[in-house]
Amino acid sequence: MPLRKSWHWVGAFGPDVMLCVAHARVGVIRRSWWAVWDGTQLHEGTRAPFTLALERGTPIEVTTGPAFTRKTPLRVRGTVLGKTIDLPGLLDESHGRHARRTAWMWSAGAGVTTDGAPVVWNLVDGLHDGTPSERTVWLDGVPHEVGPQPFDGLCGVGDLRFTASVTRAKKENYLVLASDYEQPFGTFTGSLPVAGELASGHGVMERHEALW
């Protein structure tokens, strides 16, 4: 039987600061990490030297077989590496017995439409992408499930184009457990289902292949 996995990931996205803070567990193995892009430099570590206040919006929940996820749009506030932040973001809470080999493409971000409405999105291929799916666009705080959005590697998804500012990447192989991922922070242009054209957008793309 596949090992039980769980993770808790918070991301916050803006033009001057983007960050993530996460905790994960695979069986008895636990990992924590954080990363901050301050517009100039990428800072990373295992234990975040800051505390964030999370204001939660309307979540969505999806169960696929033995795996569950909850995605929640956020307002993220705090002082991060000397900078005061008040940014939109996303909380990813997931757990279950995912397949021994799992691979996915993912995009999470936030921005403003050309009509001035705030938007947050969660798009994926490879996890919870059946019916119902976790693919969601929150327009003005209201969640809308959207159809499949094809990924163009890490260059874009659907009608969004992505320009990376900095890339987090790590490849590990412990024979029985392995992980190979890239997760760039960057900017988005283009349009989203339901929301339409973006005036601005920031967030992450991710490619992940796991043996767990």
Topology:
Blueprint: E1 5-13, E2 18-26, E3 29-37, E4 42-45, E5 52-56, E6 60-64, E7 67-80, E8 83-96, E9 101-113, E10 118-125, E11 136-139, E12 142-145, E13 156-157, E14 160-173, E15 178-192, E16 196-211
Antiparallel strand pairs: 1-2, 1-8, 2-3, 3-4, 5-7, 6-7, 7-8, 9-10, 9-16, 10-11, 11-12, 13-14, 14-15, 15-16
Task: Explain how this protein is built.
The protein has about 210 residues and is an all-beta fold. About 0% of the residues lie in helices and about 70% in strands. The chain contains no helices and 16 strands. It has strands at about 5-15, 20-25, 30-35, 40-45, 50-55, 60-65, 65-80, 85-95, 100-115, 120-125, 135-140, 140-145, 155, 160-175, 180-190, 195-210. The strands form two sheets. Strands 1, 2, 3, 4, 5, 6, 7 and 8 form an eight-stranded antiparallel sheet that branches. It has an eight-stranded antiparallel sheet with strand order 12-11-10-9-16-15-14-13, with no helix packed on it. It is globular, with a radius of gyration of 16 Å. About 35% of the residues are buried. The model has no long low-confidence stretch (mean pLDDT about 95).
Assign the structural class, choosing from mainly alpha, mainly beta, alpha/beta, alpha+beta, or little secondary structure.
mainly beta
Q: Would you tell me the overall average pLDDT?
A: 96
For the largest beta-sheet, the strand count, sense and barrel status come to: 8 strands, antiparallel
The geometry reads as globular
Element-by-element helix/strand order: EEEEEEEEEEEEEEEE
* Helix percent band: under 10%
Indicate how many domains the architecture comprises. Answer: 1
Sequence stretches where pLDDT stays below 50 over 5 or more residues: none
For the record, give the distance between the C-alpha atoms at the N and C termini, rounded to a whole number: 11 Å
Number of helices: 0
Cα Rg: 16 Å
β-strand number:
16
Classify the beta-strand content into a percent band.
Answer: over 45%
InterPro entries: DUF2804
Pfam families: DUF2804 (PF10974)
